[in-house]
């Protein structure tokens, strides 16, 4: 029996299909990663006024397909629009949410949330801007004062980025040789005046010393007591008065309130501090006594 050419071709194809080595060749499936959906929000929201020094919670939501949720972590970075250093941190993705909390500087900033990706999802980075925080600032004057006199002046206080509230002021770390009395202890900004700088009164006092007036009284007493005696007795009395007064002045500087020594000529530092809620700012006031 002769097999035609067409039949031979059909038999060859049948042989190849039914051969185990040919039919069991493995197939390769290529799966491409997809981009997840990443959203970034903050608490309080980035469009809500915040107070300088307050913490902010950043929430990154990462979603994908239902059968394979994104895994891994989020790298958060806060970049200040001023001179403050960047802040960064990493938080895991749990149930599609990654949360990180930090305290940004008072300047405006931009926060980024970077997802590194995993087996199923591509890397993705999103960002969120935020404005500067509400704050206050103040400028101190230069103070030059003579021994025994009182200086009266003002410092300038300004509201930053819509700050409103009451600021409590205090003199701190005042050297014992000078005084820093405050006749006014608070300043207040409201929505009506927050755009206008305020002048806050300051005063610095120095001591003239008690030796000169007291010495005059004692010398006057010696003049009446010894006017009929010899000059030697008067001189002895004057010497005794000087020794006595210097001793009392020294005791006064040691803690008693009866005698105050004269304020020495020198440069002194006084800390001026303002507090409003969680905001605290301190600056050094330089006082030159001549």
Protein traits:
single chain; 290 residues; alpha+beta; Immunoglobulin-like; five-stranded mixed β-sheet; four-stranded antiparallel β-sheet; 16 strands; rod-shaped
Question: Which helices and strands appear, and what pairs or packs with what?
Answer:
Blueprint: H1 5-18, H2 20-23, E1 37-43, E2 56-63, E3 73-80, E4 87-92, E5 97-102, E6 109-115, E7 124-130, E8 135-139, E9 143-145, E10 150-160, E11 165-172, E12 178-179, E13 186-189, E14 198-206, H3 211-225, H4 231-254, E15 266-276, E16 279-289
Parallel strand pairs: 9-16
Antiparallel strand pairs: 1-2, 2-5, 3-4, 3-6, 6-7, 8-10, 10-14, 11-13, 11-15, 12-14, 15-16
Helix pairs in contact: 3-4
What do you see in this structure?
The protein has 290 residues and is of the alpha+beta class. It folds into 3 domains: 37-130, Immunoglobulin-like (Sandwich); 135-208 and 263-289, Immunoglobulin-like; 211-254, no CATH class. 20% of the residues lie in helices and 39% in strands. It is built from 4 helices and 16 strands. The protein has helices spanning 5-18, 20-23, 211-225, 231-254; strands spanning 37-43, 56-63, 73-80, 87-92, 97-102, 109-115, 124-130, 135-139, 143-145, 150-160, 165-172, 178-179, 186-189, 198-206, 266-276, 279-289. The strands form 4 sheets. Strands 9-16-15-11-13 form a 5-stranded mixed β-sheet, with no helix packed on it. Strands 4-3-6-7 form a 4-stranded antiparallel β-sheet, with no helix packed on it. The chain has a 4-stranded antiparallel β-sheet with strand order 8-10-14-12, with no helix packed on it. Helix 3 (211-225) packs antiparallel against helix 4 (231-254). It starts with a helix and ends with a strand. The relative contact order is 0.13.
